[in-house]
Specification:
InterPro entries: Ig-like_fold, Ig_E-set, NXPE4_C, NXPH/NXPE. By secondary structure, this protein is α+β, with helices and mostly antiparallel strands. The chain contains 13 helices and 28 strands. The strands form five sheets. Strands 2, 4, 5, 8, 14, 16, 18 and 19 form an eight-stranded mixed beta sheet that branches. A seven-stranded mixed beta sheet has the order 22-23-24-21-26-27-28, with helices on one face. A hairpin with a 6-residue loop joins strand 11 and strand 12. It is globular, with a radius of gyration of 31 Å.
């Protein structure tokens, strides 16, 4: 009996041991299976992430100059459109689906755009004009002013906004522009203004030249005036209107003609005032799908539209709004101290850092020599050092450069000062297509005047809108300019001569001998941002297709410049458009020629058509893009 019991215990013990071993084997197998599945999932995620990363172009690394103001404290009450709730998200997604989805714009890209154009609003109702920002009472101070500075250092300025009661304002939204300048040497540099959203504004300057300097700040528009601009853009986009000229045969071999009102078809923002139903003739471009419409003529068919011109302006400002808009482009009182700037021994280190970030600070004369220093006080003389040549996709820092003796030194890339001979050599064997407005036409006019053998042809067209053509047979140069299409504020011109930029680009083969440049801005200031964005994205699509079929084509975009200060073309409107343009082309692989800072900080009287000195400096950068060194 004891033997049986012992045998049973031994059997049970053996069975228990075998069960444990079997359990451990199963658990080990399951653990290996689980581990393998986890590794497989991680590998799949890495493959997907890598694929998405390869499909997206990298943004250019930020320039060190753009980080000069990074040390400034971000306002605690900073509001950003990026933080949206579910309703806003649904609204944004709906807008993307309706307008931007065809261009491949994601919700993330759309929100980045909204953040770029976001502008702070007053936090209270403005019951009278005296509550608005007063340029006479607003002041600025230089923070921690020192007896002297070195080139490459930063200078910080704080602007304190006050109303007409001399009370400090507690909200932001004012539009200021600032510059550092010295008249004796015709030197100036653009200042980066940051809205602290509490009535204060921080301005950051880079000190780039040896010598002396002073600070200047202007109130372009008060925050209350900006609200006027916003309201009229949102509700009053038809305050600029156009004429359409219809012509056709009449009875007894006579000729009939009618002039009617025309504008963009956009069924909101006041553009719906033209009418509905059969009120109008509509002209839909088959490629852009944009619609231009004119009031239907009484005795001629819609097909009889022959000419287009500017119609007129409607000033619908209220009396209160007119008073708010009067306080425009006013100088601000502040610290007029003379800043003493001496040469820095570490300037070479600064420049090397700029070079690593795709920025340089050298301007060379014709023979490649650095600008000579005059009496040790005028010019920032930099040592010869290795710098990167200009190439597409470069980031534009703030500041993008500076003036000294009326010569612009670029911080974007290595630019040169071009003589007439160098200009001809650079343009040799080039087909150059310019499209845009009259500020782009200034470039065309410069080349015709500057290049001796470049002769303009008479195409018997309206000069304001083109097309214009100049040819240099000896150097095999052909230069084209034409307006960017409707809407266009111009004298009477043939509708058939008005082509959209995207359609023109789609009709060009591209290649290493072709240079395409365009701009888009002043004629769009009264229209909704969505309308302008749609136009820009259509052009972006055309540029992407061009670079796909001919990647060695040079594409240059001229930004908006300063100049307008009224309800029909304010700098604030232009700044908003400029941000959209940069947003759309930031990752496309094109050159962006920043003229905003060049026109904002120069000493010449502001004009939408910059003076010859500015144009010459713009051309130097343009040619440096076309013929980089």
């Amino acid at each position: 009996m004891d033997v049986i019991i012992c045998f049973q215990k031994h059997a049970l013990k053996k069975s228990y041991k075998e069960s444990r071993e079997h359990f451990h084997r199963e658990r080990s197998w399951l653990w290996k299976l689980f581990t393998g599945l986890c590794i497989l999932v991680v590998m799949c995620l890495l493959v997907v992430w890598s694929y998405m990363g390869n499909g997206r172009k990298k943004h250019p690394s930020p320039n060190i100059l753009s980080q000069h103001c990074a040390g400034l404290q971000k306002p605690l009450n900073s509001s950003s459109p990026a933080g949206i709730n579910s309703k806003d998200s649904e609204k944004s997604q709906s807008l993307i689906n309706s307008i931007y989805s065809e261009f491949g714009i994601s919700l993330e890209d759309y929100l980045r755009l909204q953040e770029a154009v976001h502008w702070a609003d007053p936090d209270r109702s403005i019951t009278n004009v005296s509550m608005s920002t007063s340029p006479a009472h607003t002041t600025f101070i230089i923070e921690n002013l020192k007896k002297s500075y070195q080139t490459g250092e930063k200078l910080f300025v704080t602007v304190h906004a006050k109303d007409f009661y001399n009370k400090s304002k507690s909200y932001g939204g004012d539009f200021f522009q600032a510059k550092l300048f010295w008249n004796n040497t015709k030197a100036s540099v653009f200042g980066d203004v940051k809205d602290m959203l509490n009535g204060s504004y921080s301005v950051c300057f880079l000190l780039p030249w040896v010598g002396e300097a002073q600070v200047a700040v202007r109130l372009i528009h008060s925050s209350e005036a900006v609200q006027v601009l916003k309201r009229h853009r949102d509700t009053d986009s038809d305050r600029v209107y156009f004429n359409g000229y219809y012509e056709g045969p009449g009875p007894s071999k006579t000729r009939l003609s009618e002039t009617v009102m025309c504008n963009v078809k956009w069924d909101k923002n006041g553009l719906e005032h033209m009418g509905t139903g059969d009120c109008c003739c509509e002209y839909k471009d088959p490629h852009t799908e944009e619609i231009w419409r004119c009031q239907r003529p009484k005795s001629l068919p819609c097909s009889a539209l022959v000419y287009h011109s500017m119609g007129g302006y409607r000033n619908r400002l209220t009396e209160k709004e007119k008073k708010l808009m009067k306080q425009t482009n006013k100088d601000i009182n502040g610290d007029k101290s003379i800043i003493k700037i001496f040469s820095s021994k570490t300037i070479g280190m600064l420049v090397n850092s700029l070079t690593q970030k795709n920025s340089t600070a050298q301007r060379c004369r014709d023979a490649g020599k650095c600008v000579a220093q005059k009496r040790g006080t005028d010019v920032l003389t930099l040592r010869q050092y290795k710098i990167k040549k200009c190439h597409p996709g470069l980031h534009t820092p703030v500041p993008a450069g500076f003036y000294l003796n009326d010569v612009w030194t670029s911080f974007v890339c290595s630019t040169r000062h071009f003589t007439t001979q160098m200009t001809s050599e650079c343009l040799k064997d080039k087909q150059i297509y310019m499209m845009g407005d009259s500020t782009m036409r200034q470039w065309f006019e410069f080349f015709v005047k500057e290049v001796p053998n470049l002769k303009q042809m008479d195409l018997h067209v309206q000069y304001q809108s083109g097309p214009l053509l100049a040819v240099d047979v000896e150097n095999n140069i052909d230069l084209h300019w034409r307006a960017h299409g409707l809407p266009l504020r111009t004298e009477k011109t043939a509708v058939a001569d008005l082509h959209y930029i995207s359609n023109e680009i789609n009709g060009l083969a591209g290649g290493p001998h072709m240079v395409i440049m365009f701009n888009l801005g002043p004629h769009f200031t009264t229209y909704p941002l969505d309308f302008y964005t749609h136009r820009v994205l259509i052009i972006r699509t055309a540029v992407l297709a061009l670079l796909q079929r001919a990647p060695d084509t040079t594409v240059i975009i001229k930004t908006v410049n300063t100049g307008y200060k009224d309800i029909f073309g304010s700098d604030w409107y232009s700044l908003q458009l400029d941000k959209i343009l940069r947003w759309a082309f930031q990752d496309v692989g094109v050159y962006i020629l920043d003229v905003w800072q060049m026109t904002a900080c120069h000493y010449s009287k502001e004009n939408i058509h910059p003076c010859p000195v500015i144009i010459k400096n713009e051309i130097d950068i343009l040619l440096s893009f076309i013929c980089p060194v």
